């Protein structure tokens, strides 16, 4: 289940829906799934985008076309429900676990805190 990023509870819900309504109930419907995330590092651009969205909150097409006119190309992509590789803290945490933490560092919360603090001082 982990390789498909599906929880046991979700599988049980799918099974119950299938038993109740059949295969048609399992088809994706509009509104399901994770909402898109907007990431803009430039504060000035972010303010422009916010004003565009406020002007046309119900129309993504209008916002995107105005955005492209004012700011350049817009690339819209939808993230999977859990995107470890796009979350920088997850990448850093994985690196810390692989490179510097030993099993004994997990014996207590204080030990873990000290090991992470020691590693963070090393990389600064």
UniProtKB/TrEMBL annotation:
<dbReference type="InterPro" id="IPR038717">
    <property type="entry name" value="Tc1-like_DDE_dom"/>
</dbReference>
<dbReference type="InterPro" id="IPR036397">
    <property type="entry name" value="RNaseH_sf"/>
</dbReference>
<protein>
    <recommendedName>
        <fullName>Tc1-like transposase DDE domain-containing protein</fullName>
    </recommendedName>
</protein>
<dbReference type="GO" id="GO:0003676">
    <property type="term" value="F:nucleic acid binding"/>
</dbReference>
<dbReference type="Pfam" id="PF13358">
    <property type="entry name" value="DDE_3"/>
</dbReference>
<feature type="domain" description="Tc1-like transposase DDE">
    <location>
        <begin position="67"/>
        <end position="112"/>
    </location>
</feature>
């Amino acid at each position: 289940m982990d390789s498909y990023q599906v929880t046991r509870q979700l599988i049980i819900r799918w099974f119950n829906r299938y038993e109740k309504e059949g295969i048609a109930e399992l088809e994706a419907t509009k509104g399901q799934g994770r909402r898109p995330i907007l990431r803009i590092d430039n504060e000035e651009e972010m303010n422009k985008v916010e004003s565009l969205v406020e002007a046309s909150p119900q129309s993504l097409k209008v916002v995107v076309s105005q955005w492209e006119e004012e700011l350049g190309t817009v690339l819209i992509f939808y993230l999977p429900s859990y995107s470890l590789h796009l979350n920088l803290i997850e990448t850093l945490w994985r690196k810390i676990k692989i490179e510097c933490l030993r099993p004994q560092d997990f014996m207590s919360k204080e030990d873990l805190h000290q090991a992470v603090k020691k590693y963070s001082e090393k990389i600064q």
